[in-house]
Amino acid sequence: MTAVQAPPRAALTRLAGLRHTSPGRLQLLLAVVLVLTALTGLVAGLTAGSAATGTTDLRDRAQPLLAEAETVWSSLADADATAAQAFITGGLEPPALTRRYDEKLAAAATALTSAARRVPEGSEGAEAIRAISTGLGDYTALVATARALNRQGKPVGASYLQAASQLNRDTLQPQAQALFQQARREAAAGYTDARSSWWLVLLLVLIIGLGVALVVTQAHLSRTTHRTFNVPLLTASALTVLLAVLCAGFFAHQRARLDSADRDGSAPAEALAETRNLVLRERADEALTLAARAGRGKLEDDFASLRQRFSVTGPRFDDVAGLMTTATRQHDAYLAAHDEIRRLDDSGDYEGAVRKAVSAETATTFDGLTAVLDEALSDRRAAFDDEIRSAGRGLGALTILGPLLALAVGVSAARGLRVRLEEYR
Looking at residue 90, what is its pLDDT? Predict the structure, then answer.
């Protein structure tokens, strides 16, 4: 036991003995500076690499997943509304509505396939994708049956349409919303990873420690050798300041751009996506109420709740204030058309209500509303892309430049101290 412990104890004794001689103290200072430069260079490279990787992942995976989840959700809601609109026209559905229904289902399927490549296996998002993929087949079969019966003039077709809509609303859309919520969580985690806070704190501590070590070393040399300046050590100090300034500049820029990407891009885009789905659900409620031929009921109550939610959340997107003003105006026009539809239906003029619901005027008003929301959503996604690309600029170069500057600091410090050490030989 003693033999095993002796070498470490002897090494510690020799190390402690260095403090009592001038060259020994210089050797200790040199060792401290070299260790700090090595750690600073390593951590600078790792911090820049972590920030670059996190920013790239946010741009190339987390945010696209959020967009794909929104596409799935909105496409399912749009398909539900379109199928109901086509149904209430009676007989052979208008080709435009049939085409839109098919396009929305195709868009949902495409987005699902893309999202499946971005979510971890076994996650909540992966389970949601599987559930939607399975349920889509049942949904399309129910809609097809409802259409076939409707063309034959059989009232039972409305029951199949109701079952299809219930599957869409109670299973498919909640699963799409679960995928959307996971995408939101991953986007939030992506911002955290991109900021690399723990690495930045460690890098700050090391740079401060290196700066202090260089100041202490120069003060010691000035006191013991009566030489005010040591050019290599002054160069090392200047390089340390340069490294600190570069790191502060790059990381401050990255964080500012990440904050802008979140505040001006992700956050309003998420809220706009939810608002767009809200108005699509309004349209579906309207058509399904007419398809059921039951007058006011549960779906109309849902419509009343949704219109109130739009009035509360709609105008608050300051980044697209002009577009949201237009959207609010379009929504008010659509609500006026809906109120007229309800007046006709409640007064017993069912056919008049249907004509109003599927009229070109009402369709144009509603499509204008969704078009404005789409434009606002595209605008905020573009803002995110611009900010996130700016956030990543320079980080790749810093992964190389940081360690190189730290190496230069170590070389300069070693040259400055070696000259003094040689004086004792």
Answer: 75
> 207 φ, ψ to 5°?
-65, -40
Query: CA-CA distance, 390 to 257, in Å (whole number)?
Result: 7
Please, what's the b/e burial string for 317-334 (b: 16 or more CB within 10 A of its CB; e: otherwise)?
bebbeebbebbbebbebb
User: Contact at 8 Å (CB) between 287 and 161?
Assistant: no
Cβ count within 10 A of residue 249: 12
Cα gap 125→145, rounded to integer Å:
30
Q: How many CA atoms lie within 13 A of 271 on its CB side?
A: 20
As given in the structure block, the two tokens for residue 165 are: 């809509």
pTM of the model: 0.80
Q: What is the residue whose two structure tokens read 């002009």?
A: 322
The position carrying tokens 């059921």 is 292
User: Could you report the per-residue pLDDT of 299-309, keeping only the tens digit for each?
Assistant: 888 888 888 88
- How many C-beta neighbours within 10 Å does residue 83 have? 31
Report phi then psi at 394, rounded to 5.
90, -15
Residue 121, class by beta-carbon neighbours within 10 Å (0-12 exposed, 13-18 middle, 19+ buried)?
exposed
Strands (E), 156-296: none
In a domain, 6, yes or no: no
- Whether 19 is in a domain gets the answer no
DSSP 120-133: PTTSHHHHHHHHHH
64 domain-assigned? yes
- Give, in degrees to the nearest 5, the angle at Cα 338 between 337 and 339: 90
Token pair recorded at residue 74: 């909105």
Helix H, strand E, coil C: the string for 167-196 is HHHHHHHHHHHHHHHHHHHHHHHHHHHHHC
Query: Using one digit for the tens of pLDDT, what is the confidence trace for 203-245?
Result: 999 999 999 999 988 887 877 766 667 888 999 999 999 999 9
Q: How many domains does the chain have?
A: 1
Distance CA 376, CA 209 (A): 48
Alpha-carbon 112 to chain mean position: 18
Residue 13, domain member (yes or no): no
Residue-range definition of the domain harbouring residue 106: 24-422
For residue 117, the tally of other CB atoms under 10 A from its CB is 9
